Amino acid sequence: MSTIYNILNVLIVGCGNIAGRFDMSRPSTDWPLTHAGAYHRDHRFQVIACVDPHEEVRSQFMKFWSIPVGFQAIDEISHKNHQFDVISICSPTHCHAHDLEIAISLSPQLIFCEKPTTASGIETEKLVRQCKKSDIHLAVNYTRRWDQDIRKLQTNIQNNQWGNLRAVVGYYNKGLLNNGSHLIDLLNFLLGKINIIKVGKPIYDFFDYDPTVPMWLETEDGCPIHLVAGHAQDYALFEIQFIFAKGVLVMEDGGIFWRSRQVIESEIFKGYRILTDSIKNTGHYPHAMLQAIDNIYRAITQNEYLYSTGDTALMTQFFCERIIQESISIV
C-alpha cells in the first residue's frame, strides 16, 4: 500500500554550491549535501522554481534538477502568481536580508536560510521578528543540529554516560562567522550557555570582513573551552575534542569521522589509568541535510520542533559578533 503525503512546493534562491552544485558533480547514490539534492531525494518536496542573476548558472541548475521556472531576481516573483510552501535562501550572505524580506512577503510556510542569517545581528533580529509576526517558520542551516551523532552526544552528556566533562578543544579556520559559528552553535546546542573568558588577535585567513579568532570560553558550570585558530590557506579544518572523566571523544573532518578512547588500567604502571588507542568510526554527518529536510517537512505538517531556528541562529550570531569586536579591539 503506497503512502499518501502532501507534496510541498519549493523555491530556491541562489544556484551556487550549497544550493545544489556540490551534488551536481557527485554520484546520485551519495548522500545529498545541498538543498536541491535533499529536496530531490525526498519525494515529499518538489522544487518548482529557482532564482539566480547569472543566466548560464541558472540554466544549468534548472536543467540538472529539472526545475521548470527560473527568475533573475526574487523581486520578479509575485505572490499572486506563485505560491511556495518552502523557500530556501542560498544566495550570498550580503543578499540575505533583501531576499528574506521578499521571501516573507511571498508567505511561505517555512524559510530555510543559509547561515549567517544576515550580515548583521541587528538585521537578523528584525527578520526573525517579522517571520514570527507573519507566522512563518524560520530554519537556519547549522547542519550539525540535525546530525544524529550530535543529538546522541547531547543525550549522553545529559545522562552523564561519559562522566563529567573536563574540557573541550575545538579547531577551525576560514572565518568565525563563516565556519567558526558552527562550533559556537554546536557548543550552545550541546552544553547550554557559553561565556567568553578571553579572545586572541584576529587572523584574516580568507575573508577581509570575517577573521578567524582564537578564544577561551567557559560553560556556566566552569568547564574550560579552547577554540584554536588555524589558517584556511593550509587546508579545511573543523574538529572538536571532548575530554570526559571516562574517556575522550573527537569529531574529525566536520563530523565525517569520530574517534573515541576509553579509560583502562595501565599494564605497565601499576595504579595508573590510561587511555586506549583510538577507535575510528564513520559518522552520520553526510545524512544531516536529509534529516534537516525531514525535520522541516514535519515542522510544517505536524508542527514538530525545529532543531535549528532563527532564535538559536541569532544567539550564535550575536555571540560571534561580540568575539570579533573584542578581537579587533586588541590590534
UniProtKB/TrEMBL annotation:
Gfo/Idh/MocA-like oxidoreductase N-terminal domain span: 8-142
Matches recorded under InterPro entries: Gfo/Idh/MocA-like_OxRdtase_N (IPR000683), Gfo/Idh/MocA_Oxidoreductase (IPR052515), NAD(P)-bd_dom_sf (IPR036291)
Signal peptide residues on this chain, from the entry's feature table: none
GO terms of molecular function: nucleotide binding
Protein's name in the database: Gfo/Idh/MocA-like oxidoreductase N-terminal domain-containing protein
